[in-house]
Recover the amino acids of this structure.
């Protein structure tokens, strides 16, 4: 990916992505059929520079502000939910890679446009050997893996006493096997297949323990004092997935506003849907839900950025609140999209109509284990009630 012609800065990055809307939208049905993004979309996004958002500046990356990242990712998601989800996962992959030991970063960032995927589902096992680990096992939900250069695979390693240690291991995709098993109803074009490691040797410098990382400790010397990489990874994931939900919600509102002037309501005297009072109520309620979600997202992002600027630690309640905000805004967007989907009539069931895909994509996002609204509300409620969150993932 080193030869990309992407601009040297993220100035106008949002506009560059917005200009790609027609292309991304036109390829969305094909991505769903293929169960992965098309090469044209990947290359267009690469030329726009989206893979540089979290790459370190000393490798040619942008270190783009979180607010701008949310705007970029929501714009991509508004054009295609699957493209937006792949973009957010690979943005996260670059961010995580920048926390690895510096020697590993030199291996990975051979160019600023490198595509890095990853998972936090430890389905593999890592066995200590001289100079590193040997890794074997299956890792599901490897979003965009067929078009990635590197994969950050999680695996469990036996410590000899006590529970196994969870590790993140940076592995070239060429060393992994991809199982073509992504047969799903939502985010179908994201290519989130399983990857399999078969006795892959990973040198020690490309291994990072997950436990200390969740506690804010990471091995990179070059990036350890940079406030940009001091933003907690799990809270960043809340922001990135918020962008996906907002983009899908906005796309549904835009499409509905266009369609209600072109169609009537069957078996009524309304020849144009936009003239019906029921439509006014549906449209207004859906718009209010997405607007409320935008406010939650803005508060979430502002909280993360202000803490980073002041180098302030987070309380458990602050972390739990951000995770709850992530889940709740996803719920609001899903409710808005479900409302629009039900108001779009039976003709919207055709696969070429975007709203049916948006409904399915947002449902898939909402049941992600880290986004799930009910789970996140319970976690926040526990903390508000004076109990421990019951999970290290805050």
């Amino acid at each position: 990916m080193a030869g990309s012609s992407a601009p040297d800065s993220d100035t106008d990055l949002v506009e560059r992505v917005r200009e790609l809307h027609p292309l991304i939208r036109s390829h969305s049905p094909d991505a769903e059929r293929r169960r992965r993004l098309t090469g044209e979309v990947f290359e267009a996004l690469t030329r726009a520079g989206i893979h540089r958002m979290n790459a370190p500046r000393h490798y040619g990356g942008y270190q783009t502000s979180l607010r701008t990242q949310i705007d970029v990712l929501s714009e991509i998601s508004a054009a295609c939910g699957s493209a937006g989800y792949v973009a957010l996962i690979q943005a996260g992959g670059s961010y995580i890679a920048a926390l690895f030991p510096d020697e590993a970063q030199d291996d990975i960032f051979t160019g600023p446009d490198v595509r890095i995927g990853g998972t936090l589902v430890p389905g593999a096992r890592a066995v200590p050997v001289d100079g590193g680990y040997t890794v074997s096992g299956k890792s599901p939900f490897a979003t965009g893996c067929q078009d990635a250069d590197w994969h950050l695979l999680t695996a469990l390693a036996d410590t000899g006493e006590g529970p196994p240690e969870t590790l993140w291991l940076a592995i070239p995709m060429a060393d992994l096997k991809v199982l073509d098993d992504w047969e799903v109803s939502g985010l179908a074009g994201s290519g989130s297949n399983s990857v399999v490691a078969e006795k892959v040797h990973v040198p020690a410098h490309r291994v990072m323990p997950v436990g200390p990382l969740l506690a804010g400790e990471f091995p990179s010397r070059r990036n350890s004092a940079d406030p940009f990489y001091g933003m907690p990874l799990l809270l960043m994931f809340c922001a990135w997935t918020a962008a996906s939900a907002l983009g899908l919600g906005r796309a549904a509102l835009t499409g509905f506003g266009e369609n209600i002037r072109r169609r009537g309501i069957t078996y009524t005297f309304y020849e144009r849907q936009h003239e019906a009072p029921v439509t006014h109520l549906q449209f207004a309620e859906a718009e209010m839900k997405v607007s409320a979600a935008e406010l939650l997202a803005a508060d979430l992002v502002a909280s993360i950025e202000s803490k980073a600027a002041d180098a302030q630690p987070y309380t458990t309640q602050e972390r739990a609140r951000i995770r709850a905000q992530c889940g709740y805004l996803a719920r609001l967007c899903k409710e808005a999209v479900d409302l629009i989907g039900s108001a779009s009539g039976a003709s919207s069931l055709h696969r070429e109509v975007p709203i049916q895909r948006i409904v399915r994509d947002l449902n898939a996002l909402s049941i992600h284990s880290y986004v799930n609204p009910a789970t996140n509300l319970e976690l926040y409620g526990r903390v508000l009630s004076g109990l421990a969150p019951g999970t290290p993932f805050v």
